[in-house]
Design a protein that fits this description.
The complex is a heterodimer of chains A (about 110) and B (about 120). Chain A is mostly beta strands. Chain A has strands spanning about 5, 10-15, 20-25, 30-40, 40-50, 55, 65-70, 75-80, 85-95, 105, 110-114. Chain B has no helices and 11 strands. In chain B, strands 2, 4, 5, 9, 10 and 11 form a 6-stranded mixed sheet that branches. The chains are: A mainly beta (about 110), B mainly beta (about 120).
Chain lengths: ~110, ~120
């Protein structure tokens, strides 16, 4: 069974540019969550999508946005990049159903903003 | 606001030693708690998931316990091996159940097992 995949694995951008990251969840999983990981702040929740709807959102500026498609694949977009956006961006997929389901993470996209 | 803390921040042990990693959370109204390991520059690998109604879970040399009332979880690793070297993270899913899958992560414990 294929795991969570994320593309691209590495990105280098300059300040002011925008970027789009992609996440394909495990087959049958309809919930996709995004996290930002930095050395200073650790892992922080960005947002969660379920059945193409944003179900929850973390405390990030509006430059961070996302969406989910009918096949459960999700994208996140960061506009007007800042140096502080350099981070490892991780997505996780969860099988829907009664709560307590295990979450599975992808390998991440390493974004460097110069 | 839920806060998750892990102690110690770093740990170095000789191969073969049994060890315990600690995770504490401030709000006991959690739905579940999950332990992960992360190798440098990599994603997270799920180790164990403990439901709020459970006291412990075991997988191979790993055993995780949960005490909701005291806001604590421990990850016990038996007979540690150099391959266990990684950062270990605990994360809680808050008590609203199926409404969201948001996880709140601890700060992690960096484990080094010396051969």
């Amino acid at each position: 069974k294929a795991g969570v995949t994320q593309t691209p694995r590495y990105l280098i951008k300059t300040r002011g540019q925008q970027v789009t990251l992609s996440c394909s969840p495990i087959s049958g999983h309809r919930s996709v969550s995004w996290y930002q990981q930095t050395p200073g702040q650790g892992l922080q929740f960005l947002f969660e999508y379920f059945s193409e709807t944003q179900r929850n959102k973390g405390n990030f500026p509006g430059r961070f946005s996302g969406r989910q498609f009918s096949n459960s694949r999700s994208e996140m977009n960061v506009s007007t990049l800042e140096l502080g956006d350099s981070a490892l961006y991780l997505c996780a997929s969860t099988k829907p159903g009664q709560g307590g389901n295990e979450q599975f993470f992808g390998p991440g996209t390493r974004l460097t903003v110069l | 606001k839920q806060e998750v803390t892990q102690i110690p921040a770093a740990l170095s042990v000789p191969e073969g030693e049994n060890l315990v990693l600690n995770c504490s959370f401030t709000d006991s109204a959690i739905y579940n708690l999950q332990w992960f390991r992360q190798d440098p520059g990599k994603g997270l690998t799920s180790l164990l998931l403990i439901q709020s109604s459970q006291r412990e879970q075991t997988s191979g040399r790993l055993n995780a316990s949960l005490d909701k009332s005291s806001g604590r979880s421990t990850l016990y690793i038996a007979a540690s091996q150099p391959g266990d070297s990684a950062t270990y993270l605990c994360a809680v899913k808050e008590g609203y159940g199926g409404a969201t899958n948001k996880l709140i992560f601890g700060t992690g414990t960096l484990l080094a097992v010396q051969p």
